[in-house]
Amino acid sequence: MYDVNEIRGDFPILSREVNGKPLVYLDNGASAQKPKVVIDAISRAYGEEYANVHRGLHYLSNLATEKYEGTRGIIAKFLGVKDEDEIVMNTGTTMGINTVAYGWAMPRMQAGDEIILSVMEHHANIVPWHFLRERQGVVIKWVDVDSTGYLDPQAVIDAITPNTKLIAITHLSNVLGTVVDVKTIVDAAHDKGVAVLVDGSQAAVHMPVNVDALGCDFYAITGHKLYGPSASGAIFMKKERMAEMEPFIGGGDMIREVHKDEITWNDPPMKFEAGTPGIVQQIGLGVALEYMMSLGMENIAAHEKKLRDYARTRLDGLNWLQVQGTTPDKAAIFSFTLDGAGHAHDISTILDKKGVAVRAGHHCAGPLMDHLGVTATCRASFGLYNTEEEVDVLVDALELAHDLFA
Known about the structure:
Its cofactor is pyridoxal 5'-phosphate. Residues 24-394 form the Aminotransferase class V domain. It catalyses: (sulfur carrier)-H + L-cysteine = (sulfur carrier)-SH + L-alanine. The chain is an alpha/beta fold. It folds into 2 domains: 4-30 and 296-405, Aspartate Aminotransferase, domain 1, CATH 3.90.1150; 40-293, 3-Layer(aba) Sandwich (Aspartate Aminotransferase, domain 2). It contains 15 helices and 17 strands. It has helices at 4-8, 36-47, 59-79, 93-108, 127-136, 153-158, 182-191, 203-206, 211-214, 239-243, 279-295, 297-316, 344-353, 366-372, 388-405; strands at 17-18, 21-22, 24-25, 87-90, 114-118, 139-143, 164-170, 195-199, 218-222, 233-237, 255-259, 262-265, 321-324, 333-338, 356-357, 359-361, 377-381. The protein has a 7-stranded mixed sheet, with helices on both faces. Strands 13-14-17-16 form a 4-stranded antiparallel sheet, covered by helices on one side. The longest helix is centred in the first third of the chain and has 21 residues, at 59-79. It is globular, with a radius of gyration of 22 Å.
């Protein structure tokens, strides 16, 4: 049984008040809160078990290494990846995508070569490709969404030309909640010899993901959205892609031998993990993923689907609220503007007075804001611990904001 009230008891911060009101935390799309098991694991790792990993032979180093490397296997299990050596641990999706941009794309792409992006992409999946556009003349091709926020996979496939080398696509939009049919895109792209990178930062939070079944070449996740620590995360990279890649950052752990006139690289995944890693952060991420799997990703998805449907019904009743993204199977993410409000920041400030935490701004999705014709939106993004009662609090706070702006 999925008992959301019992689950809420696992998250200490959810019992606090903000501005004299019970906290209603609806900023999960930016960062999720942390369960006590994660907080305790971090405290224990620093207070009782800390040492550097891989190079020590003493007890604490061996223990830290065992727990750190154990996270690699947990991530592989969470993502449905059979070979944990295809998991490169890092600080999150931004680092993962940059690793691919510098290590795989930059050495093999020339002026005129193409990268296909959707207009929904987060800046983390845009800016690294602009580096290649500016420095090497790579062409970025954009695929739009329709008026509901739906991305037609065929539109992405139709954008492929003989010059296309990579498709970099989100699995789930952080603004619209749109779920993208990446499997169809991957299959067609591979038939044409095109690699596919998937930004899984949001999708991995809200639904079961099986990367091996998707067949993509790269799949990136971020720990702080997955109820884990900030500065934790990973990217899946197919072994054949790893073999084509150069290291992105040089330093300890990613080398086998260093001499005055010669360097040899370590085997993947260590080849792409330079320097002392975020040991405690990754240990915390492993505990967070085990916590999610103990609840069941199918159960989390079902709970959030109910929240989505309830929130959609309540928000649709506000005829002065414009929700961006209305695909039927979207995630429980609602970005909106409000008639009469000067700016999304004004709305969020009023909601905050009622204890409701939402995100306001462009959500690191500038091209999408341009496509929608807005400068900013408010975003209420739901997680595994949110409730229908919190939806009601959100609606009450929005009605107050409307009354103030009317």
